[in-house]
Design brief:
Blueprint: H1 7-26, H2 28-34, E1 57-59, E2 62-64, E3 73-81, E4 102-104, E5 112-118, E6 123-131, E7 141-144, H3 145-151, E8 159-165, H4 167-178, E9 182-183, H5 185-188, E10 240-241, E11 254-255, E12 263-270, H6 273-283, E13 289-296, E14 299-309, H7 312-324, E15 331-334
Parallel strand pairs: 3-7, 4-6
Antiparallel strand pairs: 1-2, 3-8, 4-7, 5-6, 5-8, 6-11, 9-10, 12-14, 12-15, 13-14
Length: about 325
């Protein structure tokens, strides 16, 4: 049976919510620091942004390590952001537009292209990563408002998702950004032409009329057939956006089969099974705990997971308990 937050704990959460406005005034500076990855200044003109990976950084006591990872794939919970940041600078210097198909990610290069699949309704959409975040516990990607609308996430606020980077397209986007241009998402996804092949050399031939042999009828040669028409390849429908961060806000939704998934809290992963067992025994007081084995790059790891839990709300509550028990690296996973 999925783990649910006890009723007494739900009452405590409600009590905390009543006192939240007072607490917010006292911790304004801490909240300001947590939002530094999304710039708050209002720019005076549009800008295209730039390529950025960035150095390791710390938010609310948690360290994040940006890296170039073109094999990235992850499941978890997505959220969305918009009104409070619309028109302001993103982490790589673009102008954030909540109506563009973009997203914030904590570690992927900017810009990158990722496919976000809503595991609850099967909708999939390609979005461009151009910002840092989310920094709320238990979230793996922060979508623009338009992206959330198309994926069916806006009303609920969160959803179980799978995020996969598009390696070839992301590298193409990154190279263009390094050269000072921003390629629209649709163009980055277009197949590139193959290498050009030089034409074979043609020998010169000189024509010379010869007299026909005697008593031989000569038939008139038929007119040569006209050469086949060669159609020119159409010009790209999507131009390189040299001075603008805008792109189509309609996108191209895909639909994939929906499979049953469950939410867990992953407290840690260890190469030593004994360490995994110790952590599992320690956290069993919070919720049902289990150890699962997985292999990454040929190495075996033992994952400690709590759950499954019944909902995103329950997952958030359990995650805070695990983090509060001294395990800040715990995260929400969907499997």
């Amino acid at each position: 049976m999925p783990w649910r937050l006890p009723a007494r704990s739900r009452f405590r959460l409600a009590s905390v919510a009543l006192t939240l406005p007072l607490a917010l005034a006292a911790c304004a500076e801490a909240q300001f620091a947590a939002q530094t990855a999304k710039a708050i200044q209002q720019p005076s003109a549009k800008t295209q942004g730039y390529y950025k990976v960035g150095d390791p950084y710390e938010i609310k006591g948690v360290w994040y390590y940006p890296t170039v990872d073109y094999s990235y794939t992850e499941t978890g919970i997505a959220s969305w952001y918009g009104p409070g940041f619309h028109g302001k600078l993103t982490a790589n210097g673009e102008i954030y537009d909540e109506n563009d198909l973009t997203a914030a990610h904590r570690t992927l290069p900017m810009p990158s292209l990722v496919r976000v699949t809503n595991l609850e309704n099967g909708r999939a959409l390609v979005v461009r990563v151009n910002d840092r975040g989310p920094f709320a516990h238990g979230r793996i990607i922060d979508l623009s408002r338009r992206s959330a609308q198309l994926l069916g996430i806006e009303q609920r606020g969160t959803a179980k998702v799978k995020v996969d980077i598009l390696p070839v397209e992301s590298q193409r986007l990154a190279e263009a950004a390094k050269q000072g241009t921003l390629i629209a998402t649709a163009e980055a996804q277009q197949p590139q032409p193959g290498p050009s092949v030089a034409a074979s050399p043609v020998a010169s031939v000189r024509a010379e009329a010869l007299p026909p042999p005697s008593s031989t009828q000569v038939a008139r040669a038929p007119n040569p057939a006209p050469p086949p028409a060669v159609s020119r390849p159409p010009a790209s429908a999507v131009a390189i956006l040299a001075n603008s961060g805008t792109q189509s806000n309609t996108g191209q939704l895909e639909t994939v089969p929906v499979e049953q998934t469950r939410i867990y809290i992953q407290a840690g992963a260890f190469s030593d099974q004994n360490n995994a067992m110790r952590l599992s025994n320690t956290l069993r007081r919070l919720a049902p705990s289990q150890i699962s084995e997985t292999r990454v790059d040929g190495q075996t790891f033992y994952r400690v997971r709590l759950g499954p839990v019944a909902s995103v709300t329950d997952a958030d509550a359990l995650l805070e308990q695990v983090i509060g028990s001294g395990y800040p690296g715990a995260r929400v996973v969907v499997d």
